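Q: What changes when flavin-adenine dinucleotide is included in the input?
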Amino acid sequence: MSYRLTAPAPGWTTTTDVVVVGSGVAGLTVALNVRQAGLRATVVTKAMLDDGSTRWAQGGIAAALGEGDTPEQHLDDTLVAGAGLCDEDAVRALVTEGPDAVRRLIAVGAAFDRDEDGEILLTREGGHHRRRIAHAGGDATGAEISRALVAAVRSDPGVELIEHALVLDLLTDADGHAAGLTLHVMGEGQRDGVGAIRARAVVLATGGMGQVFSATTNPAVSTGDGVALALRAGAEVTDLEFVQFHPTVLWLGPEAEGQQPLVSEAVRGEGAYLVDGDGVRFMVGQHELNELAPRDIVAKAITRRMQEQGAEHMYLDGRHFGAAMWETRFPTILASCRAHGIDPVTRPIPVAPAAHYASGGIRTDLHGRTTVPGLYACGEVACTGVHGANRLASNSLLEGLVFAERIAADLTARHATGELTERAVDVAGARAAQPVPLLAPEARAEIQRLMTRGAGVIRSAASMAAAEAGLAHLAEHARADLADEKPADPRVETWEATNLHLVASALVAAAALREETRGCHWREDFPDRDDATWRRHLGLALQERGELRAQPSPVR
Ligand SMILES: Cc1cc2nc3c(=O)[nH]c(=O)nc-3n(C[C@H](O)[C@H](O)[C@H](O)COP(=O)(O)OP(=O)(O)OC[C@H]3O[C@@H](n4cnc5c(N)ncnc54)[C@H](O)[C@@H]3O)c2cc1C
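A: The predicted holo structure follows.
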């Protein structure tokens, strides 16, 4: 049984070879690389081309580029951060192919910061035992990567770009092979409203799901649409419980909601330290790397200290950098703090953890293939096995690059053998998929509140039961409205709210099942790591009657 969002039947259809959903580092890299095989690519993106998380990345991109550094050392640091759940072959692919993938990104046009001899400058971030983070524009790495990739796709006439278009659901052929998708193009134009794109393969690169929580570093487009679409199409998602909360997000007050400004780990990498309201450096003695301990450790330590002191935030002190260093090394962060009335040159920055990165996602193999034939996923929406229970800082841009290239290589190879054929879309079958009742737009804020209270940095069976009950109530409400013939209108806000609801339900289901503390999944009621029972991935798939079935699988 597959499901679809309630939406009008497609009013227009177009055809391509490979349709890519999302225009961050992952999606644009797939598009550029399949073009090299002569395939036509269509990139569909929800807002403007540069509106995903990629543009916001500050710290940089990790790769063993420095003298004395090796992929093996990068692998070791990644495995430690992943807390026993990384798939080693996936990490090996990441760290060995990473340095050349960064060089290819430079060849596309991304300009990284360099010293006077032209060598790429490398900084350190939490969990890395070496300086291996390449950065651009000081702390504007993602903006530079996005700029270079957007310029490259714009100059390639073989890449069709469809902006302001929300992808709804997967289309398959009679064999269940991905054959395209449905989408809704916003605004007036030739292709207004709901339509369909037929394709030989579909690549999801829709980014993260941070908007499931009230406070997040993710932009408004990060509503987990790709995960929700994949679940409705029958694909397996995995490790959703591992949401990384960034420890140092600018605290803007108790009522702040939505995207919040990040204060990059690189600020700690350059020597800023965390202090509580009394000026005590509370990370000292908690981990050998002090403030540069892996993110989950720092986020937990901050949360614990906030609870002990009844405080709403802690402080990050970088006053000793001086104005000149703030201005050259961290211009973006300096500007964003000052815009909110805090001058880091003269006072410590108030910080608190916020949802930042989804380590789990749509389960893929080493070539980005999901469990649905012809459907691929890469970037933050995917779970390649690289991050395990916790992503190592700055490995995500790299994962987006490396696995996008791997998908393009797989598609190129299939094209060469004649296997990548045109598919006949089973329109009748697609319409037969069960329509999901839509949630009202107001549900978005309620989902975020439920998830922040129930499945945030600290979780327990009781907190998650409350979240599950609240989510079930929202679904019941949508069903009742449908039965009373007053359903929510199909439109962007209701589709996004419905996607957020499915993703939140899957996340809580996984987090409630995993009765241990590991990586960024912190259970108050199960404070220890339990390798005997839980050193395994936790997959979920949507069943008949909309239930989520858990499918544990071994670490590869
Ligand atoms: C503030 C911040 C700082 C970060 N710093 C770093 C860092 O220093 N180093 C690092 O490695 N990582 C960092 N990350 C994480 C990293 O930026 C992301 O994991 C990465 O950029 C994700 O890339 P992506 O291509 O998978 O997705 P994104 O760049 O998020 O792109 C997703 C795309 O999908 C589109 N989309 C979503 N849903 C739909 C839909 N239904 N229909 C059509 N289009 C859709 C979006 O509009 C967007 O274009 C940071 C993240 C944030 C938020």
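Observations recorded in class: The mean pLDDT is 95.
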